[in-house]
Amino acid sequence: MGVLLRDPGRARRLARVLFSDMAAYAGDELRIGLEKDDLFDRLHSDIERAYDYYRRQVHADLGGADRIFNHALIDVLIYRQRMVRTQIW
User: Fold this and answer.
1) CA 23 – CA 41 distance, rounded (Å)
2) What is the pLDDT of residue 35?
3) Each residue's pLDDT expressed in tens, for the chain with a length of 89 residues
4) At what angle do helices 44-57 and 65-72 cross, to 10 degrees?
């Protein structure tokens, strides 16, 4: 096993990369999930896999690690899609 991330900036970059990749591979599923307001159900297994990977790469002592992950999820998967017509906003 490699060195675990202890730097919040590196953890943030990892989370953003994970969600950027997810957005690229999800394609229309991301848009449809926002339109139908079922994004988290639709991408649940992908989000869980990303979280599991993230937690294996980030040191347990890094404070705010879950907050970093969740912020990246919202920023990359949702905010970047703000042009999608949805009832959410």
Assistant:
1) 15
2) 85
3) 578 999 999 999 999 999 999 999 998 999 899 888 899 999 999 999 999 999 999 999 999 999 999 999 999 988 767 666 666 55
4) 140
d(CA 46, CA 89): 24
Q: Which residues pair with 5 in a beta bridge?
A: 58
The token duo for 12 is: 């943030």
Rg (CA), the chain: 14
Cα separation of 38 and 53, whole Å?
A: 23
3-state secondary structure of 58: strand
Which of 15-50 are b and which e, b meaning 16 or more Cβ less than 10 Å from the residue's Cβ? bbebbeebbeebeeebbebbbeeebeebbeebbeeb
Question: Do 31 and 81 touch, CB atoms closer than 8 A?
Answer: yes
